[in-house]
Design brief:
With 411 residues, the protein is an alpha+beta fold. 25% of the residues lie in helices and 12% in strands. Among the domains are: 127 residues, no CATH class; 94 residues, no CATH class. The protein contains six helices and eleven strands. Strands 3, 4, 5, 6, 7, 8 and 9 form a seven-stranded mixed β-sheet that branches. Strands 1-2 form a two-stranded antiparallel ribbon. Strands 10-11 form a two-stranded antiparallel sheet. Strand 10 and strand 11 form a beta hairpin. It is flat.
Length: 411
């Protein structure tokens, strides 16, 4: 081994190796740099870093209300509106509200079908009231041969001791074949049903019967077809010296005796002129021959006037036709003038005359205003009253101006 020449440099002194507890770099993989660390066990009170809120008594994030806001609330439950309530257990002495009655030994209404309200009843039968027995008498053992001095019960005309009629009573069944004097009595239909089937003739005062003709007397004929209203009405005919009147009963068709009280007389109807030969009667209304002849004369006069107007209008129509042939412009103008004259009249002109005249004028009119004016004149001409003079004159002028100013139309 050669040695280098020159100055010898002192050799660098290596520190002496001191014994210590060292680790190799490979051993450092399980270590971290020196620092202010905490043990994992110390992290039990910590959480990973993030957007946290300070530690506290929290609940999951949600739509919450503060406890102070719950002062108006109560825990959820099956509640009812506050009121004066009783517990269900307290209702043992109650029942649901309803239409009740006091407890008792009752029967259902359906069970009452065989019952009727308490009262003084008698067994069901064909009865009449005691008031209806006024026309009857008690049964007895009297033989028919003993009835020669009796007549059926009724309101009879009685005679006074001096032989005059006692008008306080009503007609009798014996009036069937005689004319009885019952002048002061207007008997009801019930009275005749009581007398029974038959024909009765009586002498009456017209005023008592309420005849349309006042004063005097009448012969009253009454026909009872059947013994009760089921056989039809009662017919009465009053023969007065001025007319013959008729009336019938009505108001009931009940055969039962109690129903006869409802029978009433209808109004009198004039069925013949009676002694007034110069009158004709229809449906209760009489008119003298003189009045009828006067009415007929008036009607003939009215018809003559109408016929004269018709003839005049027909002549106007013929003249219109000739004017159309002779002068195309002159004819419509004259037609307008005729319509204006008719519109000013108080007599209604027939449509069969007015319409042809209006057509002549309207056909020659030169504008809508003229046609409207002609139409207005025609409508007024068919009315029974005269039109307003100012309006009629204005419509006539408009119509004539429209006809004159219209272009000539080929014939």
């Amino acid at each position: 081994m050669s040695r280098r020449s020159g100055t010898r440099q002192p050799a660098t002194r290596q520190p002496a190796v001191q014994p210590a507890n060292y680790a190799t770099k490979g051993d450092l993989v399980a270590y971290q740099p020196v620092g202010d660390y905490a043990l994992r066990a110390d992290l039990s009170a910590y959480q990973p870093k993030g957007d946290y809120q300070p530690k506290g008594d929290y609940q999951p994030t949600g739509d919450y209300a503060l406890r102070a806001d719950l002062s108006m609330y109560q825990p959820k439950g099956n509640y009812q509106v506050t009121g004066d309530y009783a517990l269900k257990g307290d209702l043992s002495m109650y029942q649901p509200k309803g239409d009740y009655q006091a407890t008792g030994d009752y029967a259902l209404k359906g069970d009452l079908s065989m019952y009727q309200p308490k009262g003084n009843y008698q067994p069901v039968g064909d009865y009449v009231s005691k008031a209806d027995l006024s026309v009857y008498q008690l049964k007895g053992d009297t033989s028919k041969v003993d009835l020669s001095g009796y007549q059926p019960k009724g309101n009879y005309v009685m005679y006074n001791a001096d032989g005059t009629v006692n008008f306080a009573n009503k007609i009798s069944a014996s009036g069937i074949n005689t004319i009885r004097d019952t002048r002061k009595i207007n008997s009801s239909p019930e009275n005749y049903y009581v007398l029974g089937q038959g024909e009765y003739k009586e002498f009456k005062e017209a005023n008592v019967l309420n005849l349309p003709t006042k004063g005097g007397f009448a012969h009253l004929q009454t026909i009872v077809n059947w013994g009760d209203p089921s056989g039809g009405p009662i017919y009465q005919y009053a023969h007065h010296n001025t007319a013959i009147y008729m009336r019938t009963s009505g108001g009931t068709s009940d055969w039962n005796r109690a129903g006869w009280k409802n029978a009433r007389w209808g109004p009198w109807t004039n069925i013949a002129a009676g002694g007034e030969i110069n009158k004709l009667c229809f449906e209760g209304k009489c008119t003298s021959i003189q009045e009828i002849l006067a009415q007929q004369a008036s009607m003939r006069e009215q018809m003559a006037q109408i016929n004269a107007q018709m003839a005049q209008m027909a002549q106007m129509a013929q003249m219109n036709a000739k004017m159309v042939e002779q002068a195309p412009v002159q004819a419509p103008v004259q037609a307008v003038q005729q319509l204006a004259q008719a519109a000013s009249s108080t007599t209604a002109v027939p449509a069969q005359v007015v319409i042809p005249t209006a057509n002549i004028a309207a056909a020659a009119a030169g504008d809508a205003k003229g046609v409207a004016a002609i139409q207005a004149l025609a409508n007024q001409a068919m009315q029974p009253q005269a039109g307003n003079p100012v309006q009629v004159e204005a419509a006539k002028n408009v119509a004539i101006q429209s006809v004159i100013s219209a272009p000539t139309k080929p014939m």
